[in-house]
User: Which sequence fits this backbone?
């Protein structure tokens, strides 16, 4: 496991953007997993800006998101499809065929989970996963307690995020919400993972996830077991672990 701590937020955003671009350039038919949220907005914008100034061939690149909300209209601005399309897939001109996302509405999400994985497998599996970490250590929408052997499924949202979605959509409490997410087993089968976090509010959970025990109580801790994983942090998220990580001999 390699740890990269950038000097500031801007350097983090640029570095993260180049992890995506680098994969696209290294493998023209790359299959790249993304994440949504405040951590990724600027890095996606930088990828789009660089592509606009210096176009390169992305005609065979496949993009997908690690998860998607369920029982909401896809047009909802907070859906993963909408965010990734607006921030990256649209600006890069990724075709619908090469933008693999599960639907937000379905009568059979078990089947949709299987189809999602089948489509990724048909492309040779995921080469890179840019992986966010939640305040409670969740990855994708795999909440604390999710077994490490879990495969793509529909998980409950964390309570804070669910409250936000209900406020924005006006959906009542009896309208079931969740998220179709790649399971922890599927995420770990990705060839390379870059776990990303920025901001002081992520410092504590990052320390627990990468320096603490590997436990389902903190799903992100499983990346300690991945053979090719980089932990990419800005200074606010990472300074608190620098000394401890060096003492343990982590690669920099």
Assistant:
């Amino acid at each position: 496991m390699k740890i990269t701590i950038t000097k500031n937020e801007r350097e983090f955003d640029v570095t993260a953007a180049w992890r995506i671009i680098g994969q696209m350039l290294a493998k023209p038919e790359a299959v790249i997993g993304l994440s949504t949220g405040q951590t990724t907005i600027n890095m996606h914008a930088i990828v789009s800006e660089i592509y606009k100034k210096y176009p390169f061939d992305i005609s065979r690149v496949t993009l997908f998101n690690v998860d998607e909300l369920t029982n909401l209209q896809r047009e909802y601005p907070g859906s993963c499809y909408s965010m990734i399309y607006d921030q990256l897939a649209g600006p890069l001109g990724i075709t619908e065929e090469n933008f693999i996302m599960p639907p937000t509405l379905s009568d059979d999400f078990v089947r949709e989970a299987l189809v999602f994985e089948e489509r990724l497998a048909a492309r040779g599996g995921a080469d890179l996963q840019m992986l966010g970490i939640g305040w409670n250590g969740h990855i994708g929408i795999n909440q604390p307690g999710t077994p490490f052997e879990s495969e793509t499924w529909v998980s409950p949202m964390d309570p804070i995020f669910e409250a936000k979605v209900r406020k924005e959509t006006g959906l009542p409490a009896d309208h079931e919400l969740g998220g179709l997410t790649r399971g922890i087993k599927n995420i770990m089968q990705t060839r390379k993972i870059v776990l990303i976090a920025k901001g002081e509010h992520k410092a504590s959970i990052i320390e627990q996830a990468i320096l603490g025990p590997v436990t389902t109580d903190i799903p992100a801790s499983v990346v300690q077991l991945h053979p090719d994983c980089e932990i990419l942090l800005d200074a606010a998220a990472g300074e608190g672990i620098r000394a401890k990580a060096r003492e343990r001999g982590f690669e920099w």
The chain has a mean pLDDT of 96. The two ends are 9 Å apart (CA to CA). The beta strands are 2-5, 31-34, 62-65, 67-70, 99-100, 128-132, 153-155, 178-181, 192-197, 229-233.
